[in-house]
Amino acid sequence: MTTKTPFSVYLDPEVMEALAAYADRRGKSRSLVAEAAIASFLSPDADEQREAAIAKRLDRLDRRQTRLERDVGIGVEMIALFVRFWLSNTPPPPEAERAVLRRQGGDRYDAFIEALGRRLAKGPKVKQEIGEDFAPQEE
């Protein structure tokens, strides 16, 4: 049987309460929990595990960022293509009709925003209709 060396430490009341609560929840002695915590803190494996966890999170964030950049790029291209198409194929209205069309445009815009809200609320999103493996082609 191995003998353990006694060791006394002074803990802040909050730390002691947390230690006691953790030990009670686990059904372990405070001494055993404190020993495991100290061993984990001093273990070089703990640093490697922490580093691996951080690297994994950073990798996940990088993939999300890449997807966001892709999605924003698709949105910008889509809007630019639509505007170019619209301006190329729609003649300007006669001067006499412009005031009426502006008023109607406001109403149509409000209807568009409502339809957009409904689409966003229930889906499917255009983003889901475009394949995740979409790769832009060089022109």
UniProtKB/TrEMBL annotation:
Protein name per UniProt: Ribbon-helix-helix CopG family protein
GO biological process: regulation of DNA-templated transcription
Organism annotation: Hephaestia caeni
